[in-house]
Write a structure and sequence with these properties.
The complex is a heterodimer of chains A (about 425) and B (about 120). Chain A has about 425 residues and is mainly alpha-helical. Chain A is about 70% helix and about 0% strand. In chain A, helix 1 (about 10-35) crosses helix 6, helix 10 (about 190-210) runs parallel beside helix 12 (about 240-255) and helix 18 packs antiparallel against helix 19 (about 375-385). The longest helix of chain A has 27 residues, at about 10-35. The termini of chain A are far apart. The chains are: A mainly alpha (about 425), B alpha+beta (about 120). The interface of A and B includes residues 91 and 180 of A.
């Protein structure tokens, strides 16, 4: 509707919505034209800025993503045309040829993998194994989710200047070492996809139980992990581990309303009011988890299956702990890690009693990697308490407190410790 | 195409008293590597094995000292100059480079010709 003016609030919401939904698509297809990550980012940011005034003047376009993509790509072309020397000065990104023109939803029939969706290329370049893990997560949040450097710094708990330097260093390496903007070949895919899934899981777990800060949950990060998982499922619908990750994200997010009390206090899984769980998310998550659990399940399928067993229990007492333990056994086989061992020990305690669970934890605590892991000491404390060994439980709660920086978790542990002192008397 | 340097870092003690049979095996492995690199569509533009670090001489601010520039457990023992499409291609080839007593580092070579 040219000539008509749209209320500014409506335009702002439309731009914010397009930022959340379309950023990855707009940036990924601009990278192809810009041949440089920095230039692409600049052009996309400018496109979003110009949308504010253009949409207010002309109305919100029917396809905001397409409008933003066209605008950003045109800017990138303009920069190259204006500054021909730039093309020679910049070590241009190695961009894989696309089988069809990407950025549009054509190429019907072919899967995004076959069609070569540029969002996949963007995901894989951010999570390239030649980049350090802390950079992979930073680049993903910045380039795929469109977070600002300040927001990424806050998510990764580092000062903004540190994060800015980290991102700059990564972009320089991508250009100078010629890390390509491409989709891995079928034989590389499992390994490369695992890195991508690990990065998204890290965003999810950082949001689920924030390592520090006042709130237990960082809802913004959980939402980003959900968005990323959904996008990846739409791009790689055949991959079971991708669907499993989405299941895990949904089942995690579904429990959020019950994980803290009204005054922000932590509520353990066993004590949660399960009627507060988001039933639709539980349902979708459980269905996805079941579908992902085929013969030889991967680590994400197993983790999703465990979350689904918990989600399907109407009350904590109904939990099928034998099933949980069996799944942890399998998980420990495909993904041996001390944290999996700890979770398995907790399941052992439920199936075979606290003494057996405690024995497993005590073996794990000789592993230096878990010495400062807050949940090891907290789990030990709970089991010692069940065995009536209050003094030792108290010492374990104190050690857990020593390694906990999240304020909600600290209050919870301090409360348990205080309850103990009451018992002693 | 871009150029990369593959630096081979290995524990030199493994090669101090080269058993002729072991040596022949190592040479054969490098011959195989050269063939595989070509099969994978890359080109080896150069490469040599180096004499061990006790033969090295370093010069820092005009001052000459015996030994390598930096003492490390795994020392630079050889290199290849590789031409490859991109880092993924270079890494795919470099992963095949024999370095049983250590590993390799892949460094992009700077293009200084552009002016």
């Amino acid at each position: 509707m040219p000539g008509s003016s749209v209320p500014s609030g409506q335009v702002r919401r439309a731009v914010e919505d397009a930022h959340r939904r379309e950023w990855a698509r707009v940036l990924a297809s601009t990278v192809r034209v810009a041949g440089d990550l920095d230039l692409a980012e600049e052009c996309v940011q400018e496109a979003y800025l110009s949308a504010l005034s253009a949409w207010q003047r002309d109305g919100v376009p029917a396809a905001p993503g397409a409008w933003l993509t066209t605008t950003a790509r045109r800017r990138a072309l303009d920069v190259h045309r204006r500054d021909r020397t730039l093309r020679r000065k910049l070590p241009l990104l190695v961009v894989e040829e696309a089988s069809t023109d990407t950025g549009d939803d054509d190429g019907a029939g072919a899967t995004p993998l076959e069609r070569g969706d540029d969002r996949l290329r963007l995901m894989f370049i951010c999570c390239h194994p030649a980049l350090p893990p802390e950079t992979q997560i930073a680049l993903t949040l910045r380039l795929v989710c469109g977070l600002t450097t300040a927001e990424v710094a806050a998510a990764c708990l580092v000062p903004e200047a540190t994060m800015a330097a980290r991102v700059t260093r990564a972009k320089k390496k991508i250009a100078a070492a010629r890390i390509p903007f491409r989709i891995p070949s079928p034989d590389e895919l499992p390994e490369r996809l695992d890195v991508v899934l690990t990065v998204i899981l890290l965003v999810l777990s950082t949001g689920h139980a924030a390592p520090s800060g006042p709130a237990l949950v960082r809802a913004d990060l959980v939402a980003r992990a959900l968005d990323l998982s959904r996008m990846l499922v739409s791009l790689l619908p055949q991959e079971r581990e991708v669907r499993a990750l989405l299941a895990l994200a949904l089942l995690t997010e579904a429990r959020r309303p019950a994980r803290t009390s009204r005054d922000g206090e932590l509520v353990l899984l066993a004590d949660q009011d399960r009627s507060l769980w988001d039933a639709a998310m539980v349902q979708e998550g459980c269905a996805l988890a079941a579908a992902a659990l085929a013969p030889h399940p991967g680590r994400f399928a197993l983790q999703a299956a465990i979350a689904a067993v918990h989600a399907e229990a109407v009350t904590a007492a109904d939990t099928d702990w034998a099933q949980v333990l069996a799944l942890y056994d399998e998980l420990a086989r495909v993904w041996p890690s001390p944290v999996v061992g700890l979770n398995r020990a907790v399941a052992t305690a439920e199936v075979h009693g606290p003494a057996q669970g405690l024995a497993e934890i005590d073996v794990l605590s000789t592993d230096g990697r878990l010495a400062s892991y807050r949940y090891l000491h907290a789990a030990r404390a709970e089991l010692l308490l069940r065995l009536g060994r209050e003094a030792e439980a108290g010492a374990a709660y104190e050690r857990a407190l020593l390694h906990t920086a999240n304020e909600a978790e600290r209050r919870f542990l301090a409360g348990r410790l205080a309850g103990l002192s009451g018992l002693d008397r | 195409m871009a150029q990369y340097l593959i630096l081979i870092y290995e524990d030199e003690t493994a090669y101090l008293e080269p058993d002729p049979q072991e040596w022949a095996k190592a040479m054969e492995a490098h011959g195989t590597f050269a063939r595989q690199a070509v099969e994978k569509g890359a080109a080896i533009l150069g490469g040599e094995a180096l004499q061990p670090t006790p033969t090295a001489t370093s010069i820092r601010s005009g001052l000459m000292t015996d030994g390598p520039f930096v003492e490390t457990k795994e020392a630079l023992g050889g290199y290849y100059v590789l031409e490859a499409r991109d880092l993924d291609h270079a890494l795919e080839v470099a992963a095949l480079c024999p370095a049983p007593y250590g590993g390799v580092e892949v460094r992009p070579i700077m293009d200084t010709s552009g002016g």
